[in-house]
Amino acid sequence: MAVTEHRILLKYADEPDYSVDIDCYLEKGGYETLKKALTMKPEDIRVEVKNSGLRGRGGAGFPCGVKWHDLVDRKSGKPIYLICNGDESEPGTFKDRQLIHKDPHQLIEGMMISSFANDVQLAFIYIREEMPLGARILEKAIEEAREKGLLGDNIQGSGYSCDIIVHRGAGAYICGEETGLIESLEGKRAYPRMKPPFFPAALGLYNCPTIVNNVETLCNVVHILKMGAEEYTRIGRPKNAGTRIWCVSGHVRKPGYYEVGAVTMGEMLHDLCGGPLPGRQFKAIVPGGGSMKILRADERFKGKDADGNEIEYGLEDIPLDFDGIMAAGSMSGSGGMMVMDDSVDILEALANLTAFYAHESCGQCTPCREGSLWASKITARMCSGDARPGDLDTLYSMVGNIGGRTVCPMGFSTTWPVQSYIDKFRDEIEERARENRCGMGRDERLIQK
Amino acid sequence: MSETKQDDGLISIFVNGTEVRCAPGTNMIDAAAMAGMEIPHYCYHPKLSVSGNCRMCLIELGLPGRDRATGKPLLHDDGSPIISWFPGPAIGCGTKAAPGMHIKTQSDMIKQTREGVMEFLLLNHPLDCPICDQAGECSLQEFSANYGQGYSRFVEEKNVKPKRTVLGPRVTLDDERCILCSRCIRFCSEVAKDDVLGFIDRGSYTTLTCFPGRQLENNYSLNTVDICPVGALTSTDFRFKMRVWFLKSTPRIDLESSVGCNTEVWTREGRIYRITPRRNDEVNDTWMPDSGRILYKAVESEDRLNACRIDGEERPTDEAVAEAGRILGEGSVAIVGSGGSSVEEQFLLRQLGDAIGGAPTHLVSRIGEGDGLLLSRDRNPNIRGALITGLIDELPTEKLDRLGAAIDDGSVQTILAVGEDLGVAGITEDQLKKVRIISIASHESATSRAAAVVLAGLTVFEKSGSYINQQFRLQKSLMALPGPGGAVDDRVLLATLVARRTGERAPATIEAIWEAIGSTITQLSGVSFESIPETGRLIDGTAFDNLPFIEEETLHFQPAVP
Predict the structure, then answer these.
(1) Which among B88, B199, B204 has the least Cβ separation from residue A373?
(2) Helices (H), ranges, A234-295
(3) Which of A62, A138, B326, B347 is most enclosed, with most CB atoms within 10 A?
(4) In chain B, what residues touch A407 (CB-CB under 8 Å)?
(5) B429 phi and psi, to 5 degrees?
(6) Does residue A110 sit in the same domain as residue A197?
(7) At B1, is the pLDDT very low, low, confident or very high (cuts 50, 70, 90)?
(8) With contact defined as beta carbons under 8 Å apart, do A61 and A335 qualify?
(9) Where among A339, A357, A387 does a domain terminate?
(10) Per-residue pLDDT tens digits for B166-206
(11) What is the ipTM score, two decimals?
(12) Which residues of A touch B101 (CB under 8 A)?
């Protein structure tokens, strides 16, 4: 039986009559969960979210309940801030855009519940610059919610007050990194902060304890509370509770966003996305956004089944969730799945990607600043038919000096793709470079000015 | 194991296995230095906030392991703690000492990391050392030699950036050499409190620049040149003048105010090329004002006096000193001393005053604006020296009004002016004509022009001496270069005059003067010039507690509460 979507967050989003209007949302039972939450004890909500096992949908998959629990400083009298990270900027990711554009009140309800649970009086939505419509929709939604007494002062007569401010970014990938985002929100250059402290939970916005959650994560909070943590954990595989919205782009018949429970890569690619384009074969998949390691379509993986027996499995058997993709040596990241078929020149793809990360390196710390541009220059030169012997070795070892040596984890955005593309497609890249048939000429777009 | 806090408040950490006792919270760069080990770094500066961007100071970090379940320390069989090492490197500047912490600064991982960072830093660096002013004192050169891999694999085109941006009246920037460490930005915002520098653009194209419509023109702008670890920020004055390895540095004091910033004066073959700050954590940290760096221009000024004169005619020094000695024996004499003179000169002047019968002594006051940092209101660097040596017993008033009145009523017929121009101190030209003047000075002035005898002295850069700053800190300043022929050290001139008046030998060498000082001035007993530490020595100033000193708060100085 073909797998179908399991829509919870996007349940109404694509219904013909559904709009961003608050009445639409209320008609579907919207904000009832917030009203219920306001009658609960905040710590009970936190426990519920922790028990649900909800993992952050922004990229790292860090348990949301633990993040909230780590907010140790609840007594110092400093305000606690909640920031919704809507700077969705990882290449291949477009799920938060759907949630914001199609069902903004779900996000606002999730934020209000999360704010109440964490005693937050002021929350922010940091939305990427490239979503001006999203910002307008959110601002309108916030005003609607305010008029209905669902946001602002004394919400529903509960005595609890909380407001949301929408802040637009200025067009920088690095603002998706939570401490870079906080700096940007404070009006500074978005240079990620030094670690430790490892989490904004200790010193966040304006040096106050701060929770930063992804859009999809906060939307999930509504449904955890609505259905209860126990019910929620039944969706998806163990330790990977809940649905995930996957953004499938590239060479499939039906690219798009798909909200699913427990499915495999093959089910996603064939049942939901309609398989490869006519006459084509899958070649590679980047499972979780541009910075994640690439997987070959014909790759074989070793693992253990539920009984502990050694098994070997292929790409299409990979369970599509945090742990499943991790076991295959990559990460589910932000859910941006990019599919490449046999028409793709892998060297061009790599050059394109490294150009992006060179363009988006914030420039604060040495390895990422210099290494990302170097990687871009090497790959662009190789594409232009001017490859030299040893280029790949230089590239490979050089990017190894970036990831893990930088201020923020974005250093890996150059290291992981470059090393994995070379690991898995070395012969092809070398051949392409040698034959000078990339067909790109010296592509000025790839050469950073 | 001595891991627990002991009474001295210090904790033990281990640098490459060597135990180091340091205060909790000490960063690893400083802690390793205590163990005699260098952790190379660019962006870290001991007097600025930690930025952690250069990634040169990466180290391996380990902490005593604890059992996750019980929280108990994990121990080897011999009872020593099991160290759990972090998988990746951590920055030394941002890692603060905690009990039992271990770091490795020389492991294979760190060696490779440093080679990587060095290679990255040099990718887009122009490598124009042969024409770069920083060459010879450049961290990029030093660490490249010590920690780099010795070659680059980079064959691409380098980035192009502005080569000679004029940031302000005294600082010129070469953006291609900049390694974006942000020290200068942090200095401007944190120390100079004049936030004018910042980065524009992104990634490897990031460029240091001044805010639109602003200039780097505050009086501390040249400190950015000092702390720039590479040759990006250059002093417009010093740029392209001299290779630094030809320069000899002499520890001196900035004599523009009573703060007494510690400085280095850089000379070659009798010329001064630049003045830079010398670190003294009790006085000026690692900073100094720009205004103190151009004072050396006075050395080569055209109005230098390089011969003694009697009644306007050049005469040999011996003759002029003899004539001065003779004049000082006649009529009633007044002395005008200087708060800019050294303790030694003030001491001798006091002796000379005694020798000619307790001549009334005046001091010229200099009051400027304090900037709250390293320039105080009192622009005399050594008022407290004049008090300690007994040259004066009260603070000078602004003008020499009392002296002027004494000239007018004829009670003063002779004035000995040491290092001061009476003209700017309120004595009119008419008054100058009414008296006989003996002027000891290094530059021509209204006083020297009107003087019966001019004794050509030296500028401060040409003589050694000590000064007492606003904290009552005795600091010494050494001769940086010889004076011009024909000019004589003021100290020798004064000693000769004392000898002429008393008929006895007077101490003329610094050592001899300090022997005399030590035996006559209680606050300075037992002190010799030699024994004054590089960073100065606090002396007892309580005898002057009741005087209304005018200094306000500066970097390391709080005025006494009245």
Answers:
(1) B204
(2) 265-266
(3) B347
(4) 52-53, 55
(5) -65, -35
(6) yes
(7) very low
(8) no
(9) A339
(10) 999 999 999 999 999 999 999 999 999 999 999 999 999 99
(11) 0.92
(12) none
